[in-house]
Design a protein that fits this description.
By secondary structure, the chain is of the alpha+beta class. The chain folds into three domains: 155 residues, Beta Polymerase, domain 2 (2-Layer Sandwich), CATH 3.30.460.10; 128 residues, cca-adding enzyme, domain 2; 46 residues, no CATH class. α14 crosses α18. It is globular. About 3% of the residues have low confidence.
Length: 426
């Protein structure tokens, strides 16, 4: 295979094709040579579109990224020390750009020392052969395929292979990536590479990297098609207990995660749930049976952001209380609303996983589709304009008004005002 133009023109969306060709034209302005590399090329050869695109720039990646930003709207983050830049476009396509470079690891697990280099050297520093393939994007060489290290053969045979013996020692995060790719694609880790991986696990190689880097990589597991398979493989290789101390990967937990994956496959087709986090959802499922002390410990260990921590803790604390009430057939619309109004979407999804009772699912969907946005048009400002003095009475009136709207007893602004007036007179 010498050229990937056909794959680019048939597999990628028209929008992504246009962006790829546009970047190639941009490279001519500053005499840069640019190459799509890594996962983008791998997935292209697998017939898949990947909107996170790694680019190697022969020249300064930072300068090239800045020149692109002059023409194309987006947000740019630059890391001068490493010669890298990340350009994120408004619709979510991400271009990670690096200056062609080679890396030296002063110590196992440390961040690398970087020197400018060639495309071949840049590809050799990567994790696995299947991620070492490249495709030129410059107009004169567009689509030219580079395969220095046998990546195409390994891809066709479904093999994950490291490039050198110290790969897992230099960057222990590659242990997690190898398992993620193994489970995502149904590949097998090559015999010698697997021996090196197990040895790195036995020597607890990941202890040499920071918790921030380790758990940032772990969080990517939850974006895999089947996180349960990756976590089960961690357990099989005696990694799970080191990544999640105090937590046992039991059959019950595996079944819970598999039910969650099945639910997500269903709900991603629709648009009912749109404001949830993969990390918070799967961590809520993982930590549901733990003590508060252990949940807070994991929140710290995972370096969760404030909002993520709040949502996870709210789900852990309140879902056991909410679930039994969801099964009460006599729960009215207003009671259902106030029962679920503060529950993060992660909690709503987990509720349907923990209790398959049809009443639970029906109640949650009724809340989301019919009650969540059913609110009075009258607000506290309207009460103020009507001459009502501010005070505790405001909340009482607005709550009763909201209940009446939820129950369908009143509809429209005129009836709402009549309700408020009757309430004040009563």
């Amino acid at each position: 295979m010498e050229n990937l133009t056909r794959q680019i023109n048939t597999i990628l969306s028209k929008e992504l094709q246009a962006l790829i060709y546009f970047l190639g034209r941009c490279s001519q302005r500053g005499s840069y040579k640019i190459y799509a590399v890594g996962g983008f090329v791998r997935d292209l050869l697998l017939g898949r579109e990947n909107n996170d695109i790694d680019l190697v720039v022969d020249g300064s990646a930072v300068d090239f990224a800045r020149s692109v930003l002059e023409i194309m709207p987006g947000t740019l983050r630059c890391y001068e020390r490493f010669g890298t830049a990340t350009l994120t476009l408004p619709r979510g396509t991400v271009f990670d750009m690096v200056t062609a470079r080679k890396e030296f690891y002063a110590a196992p697990g440390a961040l690398p020392t970087v020197e400018q280099s060639t495309l071949r050297n840049d590809l050799f520093r990567r994790d696995f052969t299947i991620n070492t393939m490249a495709c030129a994007l410059n107009p004169l060489e567009f689509g030219k395929f580079y395969n220095f290290f046998g990546g195409l053969k390994d891809l066709r045979e479904g093999i994950i292979r490291v490039l050198y013996k110290l790969s897992f020692i230099d960057d222990p995060l590659r242990i997690i990536r190898a398992i993620r790719f193994e489970q995502r694609f149904g590949f097998r880790i090559e015999k010698e590479s697997f021996s090196l991986l197990k040895k790195a696990i036995e020597n607890r190689a990941w202890e040499k990297i920071s918790k921030e880097r380790l758990y940032k990589e772990v969080r990517l597991v939850f974006r895999e098609p089947k996180p349960s398979k990756v976590l089960a493989r961690f357990a099989e290789l005696n990694m799970f207990k080191n990544i999640f101390p105090r937590l046992t990967f039991s059959r019950e937990l595996k079944n819970r995660l598999e039910r969650l994956e099945q639910l997500l496959a269903e709900i991603l087709i629709e648009k009912t749930f749109t404001n949830w986090s993969y990390s918070v959802l799967f961590l809520s499922a993982l930590f549901y049976d733990l003590s508060e002390h252990d949940v807070r410990y994991f929140c710290y260990l995972m370096r969760l952001k404030r909002k993520e921590r709040q949502n996870l803790l709210y789900v852990w604390e309140n879902l056991p209380i909410v679930l039994p009430q969801l099964k009460n057939r006599m729960t009215g619309a207003s009671n259902l609303y106030f029962l679920l109004e503060k529950m993060p979407e992660e909690g709503l999804l987990l509720a349907m996983v923990l209790d398959p009772d049809l009443l639970v699912r029906e109640g949650i969907y009724y809340f989301c589709k019919h009650l969540l946005n059913k609110k009075p048009s009258i607000t506290g400002k309207d009460l103020l304009k009507a001459g009502l003095e501010p005070g505790p009475i405001y909340n009482k009136i607005l709550t009763k008004l909201h209940e009446a709207v939820l129950e369908g007893k009143i509809s429209g602004r005129r009836e709402e005002m009549e309700f408020v007036n009757m309430f004040l007179k009563g």
